[in-house]
Specification:
binds NADPH dihydro-nicotinamide-adenine-dinucleotide phosphate, alpha/beta, Rossmann fold, about 260 residues, 9 helices, globular, seven-stranded parallel β-sheet
Length: about 260
């Protein structure tokens, strides 16, 4: 799917789905602005792009979307003069129910997953209106399904779903599309970070087994499967008449996920 010459800004590009998207979009001819906080991981994504045969270096912006939105947009525009696609992918979660979620964690989750995304999008909109570009938000099935151990994260993703649909309506008549990909469980660093289990541990493997069982296809997803959905929605040839869509990849089979943390 060609993105030849398109300027694509990806947050959370230093890991997981965002990193896979960075490599894919680079291979399809996009010129990239990649946002992440961890310099080593961000550099390894840039190296992967190089190793895949792409000669154009991405712009790597080491930044935190909770505080650096203005710099992210200004560095992108300074370098490329334009923005065609914004992929709001950076997010994280902390386990907790109504009884156990610390308010500091709630605030941090909303600051990144909702407020940071809101502000970055707001600053990107004038450039997207100028280019008739589009936005793809990376949400989660947790925005649509209940998940008892991830209250604040689920709430943040429900907010992102509504954000997607409201902004889609705000911008549709001026030629800017806004869509959302909502992954099920995907094999990335996310669960190690969120749940605090080492990827090689027995506990981690047991939880992944439980996760596999909540999906109709009885497996967890791969980053490339999410990237294909992001690219489909971001591309004018495949999705020109699609806006406000929440595309699940793939939806949980159950409305309420009862996963035990061992
Ligand atoms: P990873 O943990 O592998 O990657 C998360 C990325 O977000 C990292 O690049 C991280 O940067 C970045 N990030 C987090 N907070 C900030 C911040 N404040 N400022 C800048 N960057 C930040 O997770 P995934 O790839 O799995 O997650 C990508 C998206 O997919 C998220 O929106 C997540 O909610 C969603 N998702 C993931 C699922 C899964 O099962 N993996 C399921 C459903 C949705 P750094 O490494 O530099 O800290």
């Amino acid at each position: 799917m060609s993105f030849e010459g398109k300027i694509v800004l990806i947050t959370g590009a230093s890991s997981g789905i965002g990193a896979a998207a960075a490599v894919y979009f680079a291979q399809q001819g996009a010129l990239l602005a990649l946002v992440g906080r961890n310099a080593e991981r961000a550099e390894s994504v840039a190296a992967k792009i190089r190793d895949s045969g792409v000669e154009v270096e991405p712009l790597v912006i080491l930044a935190d979307i909770t505080v650096d939105s203005e710099r992210i947009i200004s560095e992108t525009i300074e370098k490329y003069g334009r923005l065609d696609v914004l992929i709001n992918n950076a997010a994280f979660g902390v386990p907790g129910s109504i009884e156990t979620t610390r308010i500091e964690d709630y605030d941090a989750i909303f600051s990144t997953n909702v407020r940071g995304t809101f502000l970055l999008t707001q600053l990107a909109v004038p450039h997207l209106l100028a280019s008739k570009g589009n936005i793809v938000n990376v949400s989660s099935v947790c925005g649509m399904r209940t998940f008892p151990i991830l209250l604040a994260y689920c709430m943040s993703k429900a907010a992102l779903d509504q954000f997607t649909q409201c902004v889609a309506v705000d911008l549709a008549d001026r030629g800017v599309r806004v869509n959302c990909v909502s992954p099920g469980v995907v094999d990335t660093n996310f669960h190690e970070i969120t749940l605090g289990f080492n990827k090689d541990s027995v506990e981690y493997a047991a939880i992944m087994d439980q996760y596999a069982n909540i999906h109709p296809m009885k497996r967890i997803g791969q980053t490339d499967e999410c990237v294909n959905a992001i690219a489909f929605l971001a591309n004018e040839n495949t999705a020109a008449f699609i806006t406000g869509t929440l595309l699940t990849v793939e939806l949980s089979i159950v409305e309420r996920m009862f996963i035990s943390l061992i």
